[in-house]
Amino acid sequence: MENYSIIDHRVYYNETDQMGRVYHSNYVVWMEKGRTEFIRDKGLSYKKLEELGVFLPVSHIEINFTKPIEYDSELKIKTILKKVTRIKVEFEYEIYDKELKTLYGTGKTTNIFMGSNGVLKRASKDLVEMIKK
Amino acid sequence: MENYSIIDHRVYYNETDQMGRVYHSNYVVWMEKGRTEFIRDKGLSYKKLEELGVFLPVSHIEINFTKPIEYDSELKIKTILKKVTRIKVEFEYEIYDKELKTLYGTGKTTNIFMGSNGVLKRASKDLVEMIKK
Amino acid sequence: MENYSIIDHRVYYNETDQMGRVYHSNYVVWMEKGRTEFIRDKGLSYKKLEELGVFLPVSHIEINFTKPIEYDSELKIKTILKKVTRIKVEFEYEIYDKELKTLYGTGKTTNIFMGSNGVLKRASKDLVEMIKK
Amino acid sequence: MENYSIIDHRVYYNETDQMGRVYHSNYVVWMEKGRTEFIRDKGLSYKKLEELGVFLPVSHIEINFTKPIEYDSELKIKTILKKVTRIKVEFEYEIYDKELKTLYGTGKTTNIFMGSNGVLKRASKDLVEMIKK
Q: Is this model's pTM higher than 0.90 or not?
């Protein structure tokens, strides 16, 4: 069973640049929205995790910009869990039009488990299971 | 004696939009940079203030967009202290080209003194004097 | 009959700052989203207007930040048409929690009608009527 | 001879998030600033290139976030040319403190040459030579 979630995103003026397309740093933000909602779909939330002292900073990101995205586009962002251990979580992302037909770009992130003191901290087995299931 | 400071700013791609001009929310950020450097010119710093438990959130902002600003423009942002009390600080801003000849826009902010608990807190007289001088 | 529309917005990490609240320039973007959807509710769209050579840059903005907004908040942004003439459109904005009970802030914008050449250009009476109705 | 340029960047409030560090999408923007100034150091400018119908959209980006970056940090961003052909330009980036001692992160981008019509277009040999030299 594939383990993913899909969110909607519409492009407003603030995300465009003078080439008339979406400025590329916005993809980074969409990927964050995607994994936040993936986590929420598991009955968890980043916010609650942080209240429990579990932080998940990004340690690596990669994005391929395949086709330009225009102002006012309605997008689907698919976030796919690739791997989760007590050390880190790896997601992949696919950015589509609203019919999921045109692929505009793909991405990857690695997030590492950290405590509130900023030091790496193993996640509990329960948390890993909740994310995986 | 007028009480102001001037900073430089160059417009990169990320600040443009598909009208081929600077997207208007960026002026808000420039005004923050302007008042941060005004404070630093007084021998203070926002960062040190925060370490002392003094926060200065914005309670009001106003901006007039007079002329569009293009990609790669070199700007001067003038931050003028209008008023400082133990309750709040009021700044005005003027956004110019690098020769200070063309005025692209003007702005105003009110920032209020707050403690680290998020509750309003009077600034010390010393702090008010340091900002004023 | 009041003339308004309401959109939903959830706060993600990218909009927070180290005070643990929403950074204030984001309200500017929400207000843009609000008026874009107000226009869409009238059967128009910014995108189509631009294709017809009608641009609506912001000439003035004002925001009052009443209460801080936290990460992961679910907001309602109410956009209220105050005035539309062949020269300009004035909107007011109210930013609420999802139950529309807590008011976090208010704003105002003035947008002016412009042609694709960047010169002010009167809107057609039809367009004014469509926005008003 | 290594082929690089270095720019300065100071972190303001807008770039922080509620973890009290720089939000990761900002690195993407710094990398754009870095390569823009690299190009300018060669006596060229993105702006002039665009006026000549040469666009350079990003097709791939990668970032490693090694150490968190705090508010008010003074950074040096080093942009290193790795490869330039008539098809694309590859840069690498190193993000340091102002003494160039602490490495906060590294990145890579690929930009492809495109015409004003949005279609891939080979760069002239002269342009390639100017970037390389």
A: yes
